[in-house]
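Why run this: before we spend reagent on co-expression, it is cheaper to look at a predicted model of the complex and decide which construct boundaries make sense. The entries below are exactly what would go into the expression plan.
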Amino acid sequence: MTTEEIFNQVSLILKNTFDNNEIDLNHETSANDIDEWDSLSHIELISNIESHFKVRFALGELQDLKNIGEMVELIKTKI
Amino acid sequence: MEIQKLIHKRIFEGPFTLYDTKGEQYDIELFRSEYKKLRAYISQQVTPRGAVGIKLSKNPRFLMTILACMDAGVPYVPMRENYPQNRIDQIQAETNFSLLLDEEKFLEIIQNNYQDQLLIKHSPEDTLYTICTSGSTGKPKAVIAPRRAITDFWNWCDKYFAEINSEDRILQVADFTFDISLIDVGLFLHKGSCLHFSNFTGNIFTLALEIEQKEITFLNTVVNNFNMLLEDSVYSRANLSSLKTVVMGGARFTTGLYNKCVEHFSQVNVHNLYGVTEVPVYSHAKKMSFKSSDLDNHNISVGTPLGSTTAIIVSDGTKLGFNQKGELLLGGGQLMKGYANDPQKTAEVLVNFENNLYYKTGDIAYQTENGEFYIVGRLDDTIKYRGYRINLLDIDSYIQNLPYVENAVSFAIPNELTQNTTICYIQLKQEKEIKSIKKDMANILLDYQIPEKIFLVDSFPLNDNGKICKKTLKSYHLEGK
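The model came back. Tokens follow.
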């Protein structure tokens, strides 16, 4: 899967998780840019991404993620 | 033990261990040397009638500055590093601090030498700190805490947490603008436990990893953070087995969290604490036994008044007996001095009852025959609906008892027809249709208690301290978000 394909799928999961199709996303987007992206919804987002891509993240990997681009790169290393 | 004596004992006689947010250990001798300079500077520059505004990042230097102020007998006003200028200006106007101690000032002080001052003995009534909370009008409420309040509270911590010692590792999660941070500081001073400053700012995976990597044994944070830590998708990938004692407070201990604790924390000492900023830090404590004695009906006990705190329940100017619901009033040694710059508000909330001074908490509570207290709602949450008086928080706790409900938050929107429209937002553990939820509610609530409109949400908006922000939820609802 290419980086762009993963990004597109992550974007869709994110919009579904936050129940908002209007969110404008790019690789630099982070939790600070999206109102709905709070502590609790972050947990749900991670679970949804894991079950969609059938991957499992370690705690250390989840601590360091700064934006969607980094999330996409992490997924790429696992599929 | 009085605060000044306690600080001297720990800082100068030691030993102590502090780690900053990067995991680097603060050198003890460096800490002592910087501490003396700070204390000398503060003593020279600010009189006990003044105050020091502290605006530093959450790290050992913030702690050092707080302790230096306490030692010098100069009140301090804690602020977050990222506060905008208008917030700082508001706080300055309320508290009148004359010295702003930020990163730049701190570095300037420790690069110079100041003659250590002769320390004066402090009175229990002297102001220790002023903490600003966000008032409902937008103007901060500046709570003035006297030295006696924290002396009493720390002495209680020393006795109550008897199992904590110098081998323990405490994670300092709360920042110093939140008074619950003083539990960690009190145990650091009394017990000499190792204090690790946490990087946690909302990403719960960071908190879980810190507990695991630093092998934290004592964790004191708000109920909501524990709720997230014990979520399956967090708990299942974290090793929290080092935890021996956890302290939860700052919000209602829900039955959902109680059940998670039964499942995951059966070997951990779990304490449910209740308190208000005006009676720092906490006024009630309950060590969970995970037996039926923790609960009365569906309510979870907050235990008995701690230390020198006294608690009574009143209604219409009369003290109530056991099992009668009324407003909780708190008195005793931990009572605040008042609100800075607001004698009118102070007079409204500090009242004389049977020749003793009490703080009107605005919380509705009752006490059972065994002495334990239960918080069931807020006076503000009591509304008139179709002619009935109902308490929304009470209703929330019933709804939270439904096995598939994670959390429920109700509020009312005034209308002319029925006085109020009742709205309830529910976060579910598993899928359930609203129609079916309403049917289940009919089995546990009276018909007029069932919220008119129910909405399902994935999560709730939180405030800076990790508590559910009902005000934001209500404004989202009104804006149709």
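Residues 3-78 of chain A form a domain with the Non-ribosomal Peptide Synthetase Peptidyl Carrier Protein; Chain A fold (CATH 1.10.1200.10). Chain A touches chain B at residues 17-19, 31, 36, 38-44, 46-47, 50, 56-60, 62-63 (CB under 8 Å). Bring this page to Monday's planning discussion.
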